[in-house]
């Protein structure tokens, strides 16, 4: 058995352009400063008392657990966005909740949607919501564009 | 290198209703008692000699490796189900096998399908199948419904 | 915090035939010698100084982090392929990059596509590409066929 609770979290979001979907996604990851880790997708909980940091300080090639969403499109001129949001509980002994979404919308539209989701998630758990952190990216596709947002836990 | 074998497994399954797909899925996870973990999706092996437990005893916010399947629908009045099954080998030195499925079917239909899959999986490995454990959930969609089933390893 | 860098990597690829998609995929995993692990999907980085090995020596039932792709089809007589490629950097202090793809193409077509992707990935990182390793499988569907390729890190 090995189930450590992560101690730190970091919100990331950025976009990338490339010749194809794979390259655009790779650039979005690099711009978001997670392109040289082995991402492991997780669901959506910030452990109690985890601390926010603005930098991921792991060695290149490390595995990185991260709740993330992304969207990639070749529709030139279209707006694409990706947003993550974290609900911080009033009682710091409780967990935070991560929600995320992406698509052909403006960033602000997605942020509003996620705020509603967080209110529901906190209601579902009978927790009191104190604060919402968001991080997102909006991008107008030039050739082939990708948007990425996530919350890394480490 | 770090590759621990998990020692315990726990079957879970439940459903949730919400205003939207995200909230319904969140409630299904909470009802299945895994909604406050960071789920990491795995494939399908029960390590030899792992022990079944009926409760997951990790701290909130822990990462939890789990083989799972889910299905979410807005088709009001439709039946949706999600089922996991584990094949237990006759020789306890061997591994168990997890299979899972979800969709617009009744639970019993999915259980029968999974039993056939387990027979094939055991044949593929030349192992003798002693017993099949199943856990599933069947739900009739009210507004927006979600079903979830899984086998957590920890 | 627990973020070990993996020390070894192993390329795998193989195919399987079955009565249904699930069984075909299971056989492909078994033929590729990863069918008795709990696969955890990762993205795409070979840690600096990791060593290639041709055998995965973990106990049955272990979790195995692996970048992989697969494709399964019931279109009898059709060719399906799955390929992974690794770009090895000239400077061994740098990371390697994994790319992968699958589909209704011949293996050689996918290999050429991945080579182009690696050139872009290395350009994106301003790294010098020394060598490309590839592993792939091509399969003509009989009844229900599956192809799988991956790079395991452990």
UniProtKB/TrEMBL annotation, chains A, B, C:
PANTHER family, alphabetized: PYRUVOYL-DEPENDENT ARGININE DECARBOXYLASE
Family to which this protein belongs: Belongs to the pyruvoyl-dependent arginine decarboxylase family.
GO MF assignments: arginine decarboxylase activity
Record protein name field: Pyruvoyl-dependent arginine decarboxylase AaxB
Enzyme Commission no: 4.1.1.19
Cross-referenced InterPro entries: Pyr-dep_his/arg-deCO2ase (IPR016104), Pyr-dep_his/arg-deCO2ase_sand (IPR016105), Pyruvoyl-dep_arg_deCO2ase (IPR002724)
Keywords: Decarboxylase, Lyase, Pyruvate
Cofactor(s) required, per the database record: pyruvate
BP GO terms, sorted: L-arginine catabolic process
SUPFAM superfamilies membership: Pyruvoyl-dependent histidine and arginine decarboxylases
Enzymatic reactions: L-arginine + H(+) = agmatine + CO2
Entry keyword Ribosomal protein: no
Signal peptide segment: none
Annotated organism of origin: Natranaerobius trueperi
